[in-house]
Every structure is written in structure tokens, then in C-alpha cells.
Amino acid sequence: MKRILTLLSLPLLLSLVSFFAIDQAREKADAEAITKVVTDYTRAFYEAKPELLKTALHKDLSKFGFYRPAGAADYSPMPMTYDQALALAAELNKEGALGDNLTQKVTILDQLDKTAAVKLEAAWGFDYIHLGKFDGQWKMLQVIWQSHPK
Predict the structure, then answer these.
(1) Which pTM value belongs to this model?
(2) How much is the pLDDT for 4?
(3) In Å, how far are 23, 36, 117, 123 from 61, measured between CA atoms?
(4) Displacement of CA 118 from its chain's centroid (Å)
(5) pLDDT, tens only, 9-35
(6) Residue 146: other Cβ atoms inside 10 A
(7) Which of 25, 40, 41, 87 is most buried, by CB atoms within 10 Å?
(8) How far, rounded to the nearest angstrom, does the alpha carbon of residue 28 sit from its chain's CA centroid?
């Protein structure tokens, strides 16, 4: 009887192991895709290549920032749409306005099969990004950011 139970439970065990391996592979592939989207977003601004944003951003992007101009004591609000982000990417660092410290640190805070939350540390400050998976492609849907604090 023990032998029969063992033989019957073996396919179930193999199925579970296979399921978890496939799930881990999907999670890893999604994490790589999420990181690439955020990296392309950053590169678009650093390299003045707005075409990179066309694959990284969802058309319904909602971006809001707290920007502090050089020498200013207070932050200024800076809402932005998809089209405004494309325009800014084309101009922001065209003349090297961001300087030489073009850092980029992408941290995935949470990741599910259709949504993810990411923190980006960049030359301009910190972005908190929500992404969604649309038709198999990760897209940035919401961004809230601020300039570096004093």
C-alpha cells in the first residue's frame, strides 16, 4: 500500500516542482523586463532619446514631481503627461544640463504578475514608479518624484 501511495504521489510532486520552476522563471523574466523599462526611461532623459520612452511609458502616463530649481528654497509642482515627457526627454540633457553624475539605481519594491512598484535613484532625484503589464509588455503608468533633498 505504501508503495502504491508513493507511486501515485510522485507525479503530483513532480507537477508541483515543475510549476514552481516555471513560476520562478516567469518572475525572473518579468524582473528583467521591468528593470529594462525603467533603465530605458532613465536613458531617454540622460541621452536625449525620447524614442526610448515610447516603449517604456503607457500613453495614459500620470507623472507628478516636486522640482526644486537651483538656488530655490522651495519645491515647485511639476505635473507631466506622456507627450510632455517625450518633449522633456528630447531637451533635458541635450546640452549636458544633468552634469556628469548620471547615476541610476533601480530597485523593484514589489512585483506581481500584472503590476510592479519600483524606486529609481537618478541624477535628478528619486522616482517612485508603478508599472502595469499590458498585452505582455511592461509599461510605466504612474510616477511620483522629487528633486534631491537639501
Answers:
(1) 0.82
(2) 65
(3) 29, 18, 15, 21
(4) 5
(5) 666 655 655 555 667 888 999 999 999
(6) 17
(7) 41
(8) 14
Q: Residue 73: what residue type?
A: A
Sole residue written with cell 508541483: 16
- Domains parsed from the chain with CATH numbers: 2-146 (3.10.450.50)
Q: Which set of grid coordinates corresponds to residue 5? A: 501511495
78 grid coordinates: 511639476
CA count, 13 A, side-chain hemisphere, 57: 25
CA–CA distance from 133 to each of 5, 12, 85, 112 (Å)? 42, 31, 20, 10
Give the type of residue at 116: A
The residues facing 137 across adjacent strands are 134
pLDDT at 6 over 70: no
pLDDT reported for residue 108? 98
